[in-house]
Amino acid sequence: MSATNSSPPQKARTTAQNIGLILSFIVLGGILLLPTPxxxxxxxxxxxxxxxxxxxxxxxxxVSYPVxxxxxxxxxxxxxxxSPNPEAPAKAMGTANALKLIIxxxxxxxxxLVGAAMFISVAMRKTGLDRRIAMMVLSSVGTKVSRIxxxxxxTGLILAFFVPSATARIACLAPIIIGIxxxxxxxxxxxxxxLLMVGAIQADTFWNIMIQTAxxxxxxxxxxxxxxxxxxxxxxxxxxxxxxxxxxxLVGGDVQLAKMxxxxxxxxxxEKKLLCISIAxxxxxxxxxxxxxxxxxxxxxxxIALFFFPKIGIMDxxxxxxxxxxxSIVMFGAGIGLGAVLLKTKAATWLAQVFVxxxxxxxxxxxxxxxxxxxxxxxxxxxxxxATALSSAMIPxxxxxxxxxxxxxxxxxxxxxxxxxxICFGLVLPVNSPQGMLAYGTDTFDxxxxxxxGIPLTxxxxxxxxxxxxxxWHWIGIA
Length: 479
Description:
Layout: H1 15-33, H2 42-60, H3 65-81, E1 84-85, E2 88-92, H4 95-102, H5 109-127, H6 129-141, H7 145-160, H8 166-183, H9 191-210, H10 217-242, H11 253-264, H12 269-287, H13 296-308, H14 317-320, H15 326-344, H16 347-358, H17 366-380, H18 387-403, H19 412-423, H20 434-440, H21 447-470, H22 472-475
Antiparallel strand pairs: 1-2
Helix pairs in contact: 1-2, 2-3, 2-15, 3-4, 3-15, 5-8, 5-13, 5-15, 5-20, 6-8, 6-11, 7-8, 7-9, 8-9, 8-20, 9-10, 10-21, 12-13, 15-20, 16-17, 16-18, 17-19, 17-21, 18-19
């Protein structure tokens, strides 16, 4: 009797997915049929169409993230490849050059960091260190879901003061959350698991706003801390309202915890090695730019190399390879590439200028200036996979707008700081941030669940920014 390989049955496509796919192509075609504005290049015009196409695909989950990555890459290579070359308008750019632009995201440090962080999670799972740390957390906070969730958020806050990278912080938190879920015998696809993971990401976004390295550290903290703390408190309640856990407390959880503490046994040699490497990595992340010049991505890659090093390593490639979510890595690389192309073709700059002209920002009040620019940055973030890339593109534009503004009492540095807060709003889609894609790779939530909390939090966060601009930030002189 011969054995046959069978693949799991594919889920039937929903009507919403089919509508999303059709709508994405209709919008793309509609934008391409519009005449190209005089101030926008043909390539930029076409990339705005691809941007709209991508956002609709992502928001409707019309296709999986990895499939959307291949579609975006193919469209960019063709549409941009047959558009005029900005350096030699008489010739087309060429599909090879266009392809080189869109796949540039795969060499981005942010993309490499996401991939490397996934290897850390696999190493945690391989050694069981994630379960041991999770056990310590559970022993401290108990088995009530709301208390576990609060413990996760507070852990994220503590890490924020020591680890400058939001992606690195989620790399620490994600395996611990998975360890908690698995130790309690909870399904990965449960609402409890989704709440803990999605809540950790959304809260980390607001911690990221609070703790930065620009300007004076204490000045930044003073300005941002009240906003971030209020938004994290709101996040705590909003996420629990929209992702209702199946239960409030694990029945018999204390007895189960006691059994698991007994069963886990003493720390193994591999756990000790991983703990030492992790502590060293955490120290490198925390002191980067202060005691040494090694960037976060490089230090993480060095740690991964040690994971695989003969004799002193803790796992081999055969174990790691099937446990990595390669689809998320593919998607994130394409997302970063899309942002790079939007910058290269000046499409992002053109969109910003349209906003400036539409609202006459040169003569608008300081409040209107903040409100419009923040709204634009939050919306355009839907097409970017990295706040760093968006910041690199938009902050120079923000500075030029602010410096040309004639409003009395305007604080150019203060307004620019507030716009950096808005740039951090990668709350709607997992692909809008490296930490979002890293957590998405844990398979604990889907895009719809993420959006369910992300959209209301974005709206509330934007309204809170306007309230703070009229009150606290105005009182301390930055708005």
